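Protocol step 6 of 9: fold each sequence in the batch and record its structure tokens directly after the sequence line. For illustration, a two-sequence batch is reproduced in full.

Sequence one:
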Amino acid sequence: MSSRPYDAVRYPTYPRIETHPDRLAAVATLAGMAPAPVTRCRVLELGCGDGGNLIPMAYFLPGSSFAGVDLAAGAIGQGRELVRALKLRNIELREADLRDLDRNAGAFDYILAHGLYSWIPPDVRDRLMALCAELLAPQGVAYLSYNTWPGRHERHILREVLLYHLREARAPQRRLREARRLLRAIGTPAALEMAASPDDLLFHDDLAPVSDPIWFRDFAAHAEAHGLQYLGDVGPGPRSSGDEQYDDFLRMRAFRQSLICRAGIALEQPAAALMPRFLFSIASPEMAQDAVTAALRDAYPLPLPFDELAPYAGADLAERLFALYQAGVVDVHVFDFPCEETATAHPRATRLARAQAKGSRFVTGVRHHLVELNESDRELILKLDGRRRRASERVGWFAQMGLLDA
């Protein structure tokens, strides 16, 4: 196989809302920290790929600075092309090995490492944790995602079967074809789900040379060994309020998106009394269940401040919102995303959306969420340069999705 597997099988990256500084800062604030303002922070992404996650942040947060590092030269080259097209001056992407990074990079308020921890050798994994310890600002937050036991057991068994079956196959496309053929023959729900995975996920997640799930307790101990501590998790689903390891047992959790910070920080338990400090959005419009969540659904995907929700719940609003947050129904925010919520007579799509729509049906909204366009929407986005009069009611939906310039 290629020594650069991410060049052999492209692994496109997308905006991951869980990695946005707003999400990290909100969890940190709930725990009593004083994280850097979203509008004035330094962000480092390790394993940034083609910048699909980092570049939209740099576009919508011009007062912050961003650095991305990845081993895949082709992906970095593609990302740099988009950076040049957007004329961004607050982001740098470079091809490098994280083992070569050191303190000279300076301190970062937020460090992102999605899809690295479980997929790199133990020595590199240890260097990743050490980098977080070396490069995090005093109130900094790092995001690391990883596969976990016990939920990963069935898929991991299938991976071991595939690696044995493919021990003589070297060409990436042959490995993918033969893997899918065997998975369909096995025919279990997990095998069929794996067989249906797109090439990038099957090749880089399941057939990667290294793919090591970990117990949460061992992840927390690894962080502690480097002078760091577990802060909380982000992502969909309920928030744990007890023993994190037992929570994984009960849910058979297979994947975590964990935040860590410096061990010397005294963390507090999140509480309902803190809710008036935040803005709120519904995790999914389908989750609306009462007047509060219906109001959030109507504003989706943008968040609403606490005061605007007061008419829908009365005196118990803080308790209600905290319960919804704990249940994973709503997300909390510290940043009021700037957005043109109504279309003007001469609407203009963001330069980012127009650049992305040239080659994809997926574009990024202002809240760092992925928006899928049909072909007519994609063609319309390309025309919205501010010089044409509004010609379609669809433009109003673009405004709601945060695709128009504010």
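Sequence two, same batch, same settings:
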Amino acid sequence: MRVIVADDERPARSYLTSMLRRRPDIDIVGEAETGVEAVALIERERPDLAFLDLQMPELDGLGVVRVLKRKVMPLIVFVTAYEEYALRAFELNAVDYLLKPANPARVGDALSRAHDRLERVDLRDSEVDRVKAAVEAYEAEARLPWLERIPVRRRDIVTLLPVKQIASIVAERELLHITTVRNEKHTITYRLKDLETRLPPSKFVRLGRGTLVAIEMITKVQLMPGGGYLVSLSNGEELQVSRIQSRVVRERLLKL
């Protein structure tokens, strides 16, 4: 069985892949660190089974399922830390999942079920439908309200920064540097992928693993050597688009 593993946390990814490599019936055909990489890997390798981390930068495991076309969709096993709504949605729709750290016996059970399902060609469409339904059920129940303001602390003063005033957010390890439409600078301690889940996806787009920008602030997209882009914002900022994320930017911004 041809398998890929997608997880942005290297130790978790290495632990799972080392477990899978011990099995003679498994051929690991690729690893991905982000959801965007996972989509490209699946489209290129056409694996039988994909282990997808529920939370990844740029595009999470649920987003990977949304983006993939039915004809290339492999069997899916979601990998996650305990999350009530996710487990409820997966169990309700008979979708396999693993809790971190993965238990060898649980991995074996998931692989056995995958083997059985691969032998049943007539189950392919129902498998895809189950995964899609699980994603929709999770998102309908678990989504927190979009943030309207972000608290920014400077010494003893907390400023409530309206989300609509944000032009860009750039991550630097555990810090997020926020630039406003008026070029005001703020820094908070937070993870970008966690903040991204609280911002409306119709208003923001990833330019790379560590960069998020407000779509309405983008005034120009310049093609760069090697296939990447340079994005200009109306506040004067210029930000690079990663090669991996260029595809997403092209689909969202450069097509009528």
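Proceed to step 7 once all outputs are recorded. Observation for sequence two: The domain at 2-142 is CATH 3.40.50.2300 (Rossmann fold).
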